[in-house]
Amino acid sequence: MKKILLTLCLLCSFTVSLYAVTVEETVKGNLTIEGNLTITGTFTDGTTSIAGGNYTGVGNITGDDVDISAGTGDYTSSGTIASGDITIFDATPILVFKDSNSLGAASVGFIEWRDSGGGRAGFLGNNTSGNDDFLWKNEQGGNIGIQTTGGGELQIFANVDLNSNDLTTAGNISITGFGAGKLLLGDTAIGIYSQADTFMDLFADGGVRIGDSSAGAPTNFVLFGSTGNQSFNGTAEFHPPRISQAGEPGLSNGELVIWHDSDDNKVYMVYDDATEGAKKIELI
Q1: What is the dihedral sign for C-alpha 139, 143, 148, 149?
Q2: Where do the domains of the chain lie?
Q3: How far is residue 23's CA from residue 10's CA, in Å, rounded to a whole number?
Q4: What is the dihedral of CA 42, 46, 50, 54, to 10 degrees?
Q5: What confidence category does residue 13 fall into, taking pLDDT thresholds of 50, 70 and 90?
């Protein structure tokens, strides 16, 4: 195998067409390699272009702007790439994290952010062997924000599981489409939705309770049964509306009121029947 050992600081650009090149010193300038390049020192600044070969570096790469074009070959480094910007230039650029010794749920690969002291600030990816969950985590106690410009939206094409956490917003939660989207509670037979415009529908196969408990069964509550019947339980009471005026009040069909006749100080229960019209009973 042909091999050239370069031990001088190279200040100019040149092309090496031999099979393999080993560089053990600092190189400044541009290198164009048509074979394989192995670096055991430090590569600073400039551009490295490899046409079809492999780029194997066990040292560090530093520079304000590092562009690596590996052609059809591979770039491998066990050191650190320190750069202001790193550009992947291709017609279809793809950044791939591939586990070298594990398959399926056992594989691990993630992007990690660290502060200047080396402490991990957060990560994005699969950081645990044994499961296939993909995690985005902020480890400094801050938030994770997702923003769009203009009228853009965050669209999620899968079910969302809050994993026993809370959903908090100062804005609106909109479920569009009448009779379609529902807010389900526990199972598909309990929830809230809008069957048609101007209506809000509460539904439950056993009944809807409005009462005094947010944990456990309520003691004092109004029950709207699954048949539509209404009952009052505990200290819950029904108080019909009271009207105080001189003349008998005009009611809507099916309306029931207590009327205080201010002329003679008498009290009546008044009901408007669909067939017989308004009927009243004096309460003595």
Answers
A1: negative
A2: 3-87, 104-138, 183-232, 242-282
A3: 10
A4: 20
A5: very low
Give the C-alpha separation, 201 to 216, whole Å. Answer: 23
Joined tokens for residue 111 = 């992007």
Burial of 141 per CB tally in 10 Å (0-12, 13-18, 19+): exposed
Which H or E run contains 81?
strand 81-87
Cα separation of 200 and 192, whole Å?
7
Tell me what pLDDT residue 94 has. Answer: 84
- Encoding tokens for residue 35? 């074979």
Residues 6 or more apart whose CB falls under 8 angstroms from that of 193 comprise 175, 179, 181, 182, 183, 201, 203
Positive or negative torsion for Cα 84, 89, 92, 94: negative
**What pLDDT is attached to residue 138?**
94
pTM for the model:
0.55
Q: What are phi and psi of 174, to 5 degrees?
A: -105, 130
Long-range Cβ contact pairs of 122-131 (< 8 A, separation 24 or more): 125/97, 129/102, 129/105, 130/105, 130/106, 131/105
Take residue 63 and report the two structure tokens written for it: 């520079």
Pairing mode of beta strands 60-69, 42-44: parallel
pLDDT 10s digits, 220-229: 999 999 888 9
Nearest CA to 69 among 99, 96, 34, 26? 34
Q: Where does residue 20 rank: exposed (0-12), middle (13-18), buried (19+ CB within 10 A)?
A: middle
